[in-house]
Amino acid sequence: MEVVDYHTAGEPFRIVVGGAPALSGNTVLERRADAQKNHDDVRRFVVNEPRGHADQYGCFVVPPNDPGAEFGVVFFHKDGYSTACGHGTIAIATWAFESGLLRPGDGLNRISIDVPSGRVRVEVNVVDGRVRDATFVNVPSFVTATGLSVDIGGSMVSAAVAYGGAFYVSIDAADLGLSVTPDHVERFISLGRHVKASLAGHPSAVHSDPRLSGIYGVIFSERLGPYHQRNITIFADGEVDRSPCGSGTSARLALLHHAGELEVGDVLIHDSVIGSRFLGRVLAVTEVDRRNSVITAVTGSAHKTGTATFTLDPEDELGLGFQIR
User: Fold this and answer.
1) Given pLDDT bands bounded at 50, 70 and 90, which one contains residue 22?
2) Distance between terminal CA atoms of the chain?
3) Range of the domain at 22
4) Most buried of 190, 234, 279, 280, CB within 10 angstroms?
5) What pLDDT is attached to residue 257?
6) What is the pLDDT of residues 80-128, one digit of tens each?
7) 292, burial (CB in 10 Å: exposed 0-12, middle 13-18, buried 19+)
8) What confidence tier does 321 reach under pLDDT thresholds 50, 70, 90?
9) 109 plus 214 within the same structural domain
10) What is the largest CA-CA distance in the chain?
11) pTM recorded for the entire structure
């Protein structure tokens, strides 16, 4: 199995470039379903230890839904398959130009990528032949609930839910008496799992396409200034996003705009728990399925970290690998 590894703002992203079976289906969502049903051994092979780790992320590159996009992406992590991945979108767009799949020109290179949540537009900024950063314009983002009460250890905290390609719960870290710093990561993992389980099946996470429904992640935010926040996102089953979370940034932008704290054109400085950064903006206000929504843009940079050829010894008693968290 041939892979290329990138990181976006510290968050890993493993791109399978050879050795994987072709996924069946006419759309990215259908190919995602085929991967889940028939080829999950490949995901486990490249994600599980000892080849991966508990916070590994990656993707299969697949054909687009139609000729309107350059290619499609099926995202995966240690627990399954996500509907959106902003940091992965930045990484895969960067890889597309650096690998020669697409030919870059200096300046902004505009492409479209089909992901499970829909079609995203990406502007890849190339300077002197090198990719400096990329900005993805996400599918419409919207708020589905505010003022929810979640019981955490006998204390009720306020939460909100918003969609940015996936559904995210947002909680102010100050309400928990915590700051978003690495020394609190284990506590945030525990809290994120608890909150996600508490809101499993909640109507605020129901999408018109049921394949996109369900709480995906929990964002704990800390305000550093009027347009400056730091967050840690716990997604899937206790995975920690090292980046500020791309699709989560879109969800946060929708919430801040809904609250009147961020207007169209304002730039949100969005930092991660490790201090890396995305920049987010609300580009426009729109309506989707009779719901007020916003179009968001998120900017970040990705860097190649290596390539690998993974093999499976038929006598290896660990087989497709293991997880210890």
Assistant:
1) very high
2) 24
3) 2-137+304-309
4) 280
5) 97
6) 999 999 999 999 999 999 999 998 889 999 999 999 999 999 999 999 9
7) middle
8) very high
9) no
10) 60
11) 0.96
pLDDT-derived band at 67 (thresholds 50, 70, 90) equals very high
Place of tokens 């992640």: 217
What pLDDT does residue 291 have? 87
Domain assignment of residue 122, yes or no: yes
**Is-cis flag, bond preceding 63, omega within 30?**
no
Closest Cα to residue 70, out of 98, 39, 103?
103
What is the Cα–Cα distance from 155 to 170, expressed in whole angstroms?
Answer: 16
Q: Which of 85, 92, 111, 160 is catalytic?
A: 85
Whether residue 180 sits in one domain with residue 52: no
- For residues 87 and 301, the answer to whether their CB atoms sit within 8 Å is no
Q: Domain containing 224 — which CATH number? A: 3.10.310.10
218 and 151 within one domain: yes
CB atoms within 10 A of CB 181: 15
Q: Per-residue pLDDT tens for 205-225?
A: 999 999 999 999 999 999 999
Query: For 180, which DSSP code?
Result: S
Our answer to whether residue 245 is catalytic in this structure is no
Cβ neighbours of residue 124 closer than 8 Å, sequence gap 6 or more: 93, 94, 96, 97, 104, 108, 109, 110, 111, 131, 134
Q: Measuring CA to CA, which residue among 192, 272, 202, 181 is closest to residue 237?
A: 192
Is the pLDDT confidence value at 154 over 90? no
Tell whether the model's pLDDT for residue 146 goes beyond 90. Answer: yes
Is residue 96 within 8 Å of residue 111, measured between CB atoms?
Answer: yes
Map residue 296 onto helix, strand or coil: strand
Distance CA 70, CA 53 (A): 30
Q: Which residues pair with 26 in a beta bridge?
A: none
Report the C-alpha gap between 20 and 231 in whole angstroms.
35
Rg (CA), the chain: 19
Query: 3-state DSSP call for residue 49?
Result: strand
